[in-house]
Amino acid sequence: MATPFFEKLKNSLVKTKKNFSGKIDQLINYSGVYDEDFFEELEEILILSDIGYESTTAIIDRTREKISRENITDKDQVKNAIKEVIKDMLHSDDEETFHKPAVILVVGVNGVGKTTTIGKMAQYFKNQGDQVMIAAADTFRAAAVEQVEIWAERSGAQIIKNATGADPSSVVFDAIQSAKSRKADVLICDTAGRLHNKENLMKELSKMNRIITKEKENFHFYRYLVLDATSGSNALSQVEIFQEATGLEGIILTKLDGSAKGGIIIPIKTQKGLSVKYVGTGEGIDDIQPFEAEDYVDILFE
Predict the structure, then answer these.
(1) Helices in 32-90 by DSSP H: which ranges?
(2) Is residue 63 within 8 Å of 82, Cβ to Cβ?
(3) Is residue 97 part of a domain?
(4) pTM, two decimal places
(5) Distances (CA, A) of 273 to 52, 236, 250, 268
(6) pLDDT, position 1
């Protein structure tokens, strides 16, 4: 039986599914012969689905080899072969389990839905019975602190903040000390996303990294990059920037419900080695959930 999480993910992927598997179905149904023309058209569909050239080439090569090796001619089996190849590429044997108490450093450019995501994450952990704190460490924008305050109030999380313009790292430091004394289960740290001042941003995030890493005996540390699903292949360049600045454990993908570009999940994993950990599936405070790669592929090929 489909879980509520599965149904929410399915509803969020309607546009991506139409753009992706709808076209693959058409191609398979009209082809009948799985020759170079077929694979050229499949390549075009995959690239236009924001899977990118490198990942598309890998999918094509593995599918061609699988069809040849297993002597596949049936249309349903061809579709299943593509599905199994993608599922295998997204599979990880070494997925890290989330442990508590935890500090989550949330990074990302302005406009991707970072603050909203932090509010949803706070609610997600509160729903599990956790004591949650939020560090308002985007101190350069007064509006950012105000937004975090609103989400903290809605979710029932405690907030640690400082004056506008204060050193962001000092907010993180104070929040960690407070989280220790209050025995919080999860501390979520907001950060600035000013890419036009990349050098300062890098220094700022590196400093936060050092402060949190010093507390590794007291907390598990996770760095998550928030990406907007509607940005498609532009998301990969953001991954590179923040990998360099702070290192990353995973991705939180927002606005999946409003995008036909959910195919970006594949190159994030296959080219950048990062798994999507959570997905935003709507605008409500409860509209975030852990991402399951197997469910994602099953939905795309239903």
Answers:
(1) 36-48, 53-69, 75-90
(2) yes
(3) no
(4) 0.92
(5) 14, 11, 9, 7
(6) 47
**Which residue range is the domain that position 77 belongs to?**
4-90
Q: Return all residues near 164 (Cβ < 8 A) that are at least 6 apart.
A: 139, 140, 141, 142, 145
Do 221 and 228 contact (CB within 8 A), yes or no?
A: no
Residue stretches of the chain with pLDDT short of 70: 1-2, 93-95, 195-197, 259-260
- The DSSP output letter for 264 is G
Which candidate, 95, 47, 71, 65, places its Cα nearest to that of 294?
95
Residues 6+ apart with CB under 8 A from 216: none
Are 176 and 187 spatial neighbours (Cβ–Cβ below 8 Å)? yes
Task: Examine the domain organization and report whether 258 and 152 are in the same domain.
Answer: yes
Token representation of residue 241 = 């920037």
Number of domains in the chain: 2
Look at residue 197 and tell me if it is in a domain. yes
- Is residue 20 included in any domain, yes or no? yes
Measured at the alpha carbon of residue 239, what is the angle toward residues 141 and 164, in degrees to the nearest 5? 10
